Amino acid sequence: GEPNVSTATSVREQHGHDESMHACAPPDAVVWPQSVEQVQELAALCYRYRVPMVPFGTGTGLEGGVNAVQGGVCFDLSRMDAIAELSLEDFSVVVEPGVTRKALNRHLRGTGLWFPVGTVDARASGSSWARG
């Protein structure tokens, strides 16, 4: 329920596009889960009723991946923003999906590490760390 679900036109339109050239395709509803368990429950309901699920982070993508071309429910993950674990020894961090790069770098301030924009190492499956 409120404030964790919205069917307001303005909210749906905000979540129906990213920074790509694609036209807005809003979802039927937007939800803000706050735990893994809530995501699991919502996903089970969507699966049961064959409702498309569209994950939403910050809306800054360039591919149109948040466009709900078949309607459905948008899962806005921005409220799942905890940094669960940081290991300086092996350069690893466990974060929830709503953690932004800027928030991670604020958390890393003072450790000598930072997480730069857009650095992908072809030998790894994710982005690279850097020492500041």
Automatic annotation (TrEMBL):
Its cofactor is FAD. It comes from the Eukaryota. Residues 23-132 form the FAD-binding PCMH-type domain. Signal peptide: none annotated. Transmembrane segments: none annotated. GO terms for molecular function: D-lactate dehydrogenase (cytochrome) activity; D-lactate dehydrogenase (NAD+) activity; FAD binding. Residues 1-11 have a biased composition (Polar residues). One of its GO terms (cellular component) is mitochondrion. PROSITE patterns: FAD_PCMH. Residues 1-20 are annotated as: Disordered. Gene3D superfamilies: 3.30.465.10. One of its GO terms (biological process) is lactate catabolic process. PANTHER family: D-LACTATE DEHYDROGENASE, D-LACTATE DEHYDROGENASE, MITOCHONDRIAL-RELATED. Belongs to the FAD-binding oxidoreductase/transferase type 4 family. This is LDHD protein.
